[in-house]
Amino acid sequence: MKWSCAITILFLSSNLFSQSKERTCFQTAQPWQAELDIRSDIAIVYGVNKSFADRVKSWRDKGYTVEFMTGSAWGEYQDYFEGRFDGKTHFEEGQVQKNGETIWHGPKVPYVVPTKSFLEYLKSLIKIAIDEGAETIHLEEPEFWNRAGYSEGFKKEWSDYYSEPWQPQHESPAATYRSNKLKHFLYTRALTELITFIKDYAQQQGKTIPCFVPTHSLINYSLWHIVSPEAALAQIPGLDGYIGQVWTGTARTPIFYDGFKKERTFEAAYLEYGSVAAMTSSTGKQVYFLTDPIEDDPNHSWDDYKYNYEATFIAQLLFPEIFHFEVMPWPGRIFLHKYSVPNQTEKQLIPPNYATEILVLINALNDMEQTQVRSTQTKGIAVVQSNTLMLQSFPTHEGYEDPALANFYGLALPLVKHGIATRIVQLEHLEKSEALAGIDVLLLSYANMKPLNPAYHKTIAEWIRRGGGLIYIGRDNDPYQSVPEWWNAKPNHFAAPSEHLFQLLQIKPPTQSSSFQCGTGFISIVRRNPKEYIMEKEQHELLRQEVKAMMKKLHKENLWQEKNYFHLSRGPYEIISVLDESCSPAPFSLFGSFVDLFDAQLPIINKKTIFPAQRALLFNLNFIKTTAPVVIASASRVSDEICEKSKYKFCLKGPAKTEGRARIFLAKAPLSTSIRDAEGKDIGKIYNWEEENQTMLLEYPNVPEGIWVSITLRL
Predict the structure, then answer these.
(1) What single-letter DSSP state applies at residue 348?
(2) 204: domain range?
(3) pLDDT (tens digit, 9 = 90+) per residue, 34-51?
């Protein structure tokens, strides 16, 4: 944030109508209406139907960049399934599970095996979207269920891919692994074809159309037993980026820790966002992080939605390299639908204070590209993930069990719970040596995933010899160790893929936990499975002891700090999460002068105390090093700013039927202040300028047309 007289340029650059950098978006299937005009940069219009052109025009006419999104594995495609597209019905293309039943997303909406005819149908929709001026195409959620794999179409794909008859996946671990590997291939192939079509058709029209894939995290898909291309997307020519779909609905999925399975929304969200960042790290692809002020399940209360939204909101901000955001999907279900309220029998529309808080937060996201980032968390520690997490998660075979993805969370949660800024590294990116830049200690297990390429081991071995510390954790006795893959195919004869890595390091595979020096680095081999650290009580400390011991070997033990909180500063924004089930039950306190952005009243506070399992987002007023006036927090989009010697004027725009608030920094008490609507009528409430913090608070009704604030400055 540049605090100078040109400070207003910062907020002018956030103006929907004049900004040069688009940072925020939302998706909607509805046309523009005043209650949904949340003033993000981009409106992603969902789905092609008879109203599509009108919906696109309605948002574009209000100044939005308009993009297009459609499902790549499901959607309201009844015209295709019922035969109105090409004269044939296509319900037989649905994903089928063992009992012969189709897996449905909704009424007459199956999850689809991506056949050639289905892709031709999607191309017809995409063509319409491009013709109507969509500036980016989003192909959402390429999903193939683990439990699927029994349809005739899938059996044919098996025969084509493996050049052998189909095998029922439930009959053996090898069949399961190969079935899911095929599902991964089918949607990677499908997206490659669709993106190639988009680029070629756009070029014919003299256009350049970016292509994005909105997708859940690899962790969530593995946890929910779904196969998707994930990291393989980065290899698709023409793919420009991702939207990382992490929100309450994914992050609240119960997971194990200290022998107990329950919702741990913040910690799960932190790792999910880290998973998305890992999938895209070093690829040059653009990444948006998503949050949702509610979730898909309508059976929760507004209080529940608010609590979990704040948890995911803070989690996403702990990755300062990401500063593009989908601020919400489906604003209609947030601002127009009713949900329960404690002690009330009737469901209610969104509480006014929660609506105001959401608007404050999404406007803050427009300002999250900060160059000054400060943190005291322990860094340099990473956990490895692989796309193959999705390949052996269902069904469970004799000798293999990984409930709630415990073999992944067992490596990560003991660190996150003690405030370690744990990174995730994508195994498939390890063909590039820079993928391990900045990593001191790497945690790896093949208990629930397998390496698809021996080249990854060469990178890891070279990194260890240069001074890295690898902790390999696994018994290597699960039935997936013997699936037909490179490590057991001629000329190799390894019983487990880890043995190839050990051979590169000139280590004989130990039967007991052991540690070895290799070059200037070390490898510790721990003969237990990661899930044991969290599914059993009071075992998580053993994982931290392994990491601390490795830090000591690397002579970096002084960098190790356990905390019961995360605290990151992005410019003036103080981002805090205090952890329960941690190394201390103490609250975390921050002293200074702050605007509390999780409080719709935008109060000024001198001390903030956050208790375990709570979060905070504060604007640090001490960061202001200028006398120029500026809006520092607002439940409206700031635009049309004019900063003159004696006058500060700007427009505030927001969705109808919401309460707007704005806190403004003014070095001196103003001579006069007015808030007027488009017709020049006085509107809202102006609170007195506060000398101790040099700010003033405004309250007003939000309107899409905007209200004008005019302040005569004291020279």
Answers:
(1) B
(2) 72-209
(3) 999 999 999 999 999 999
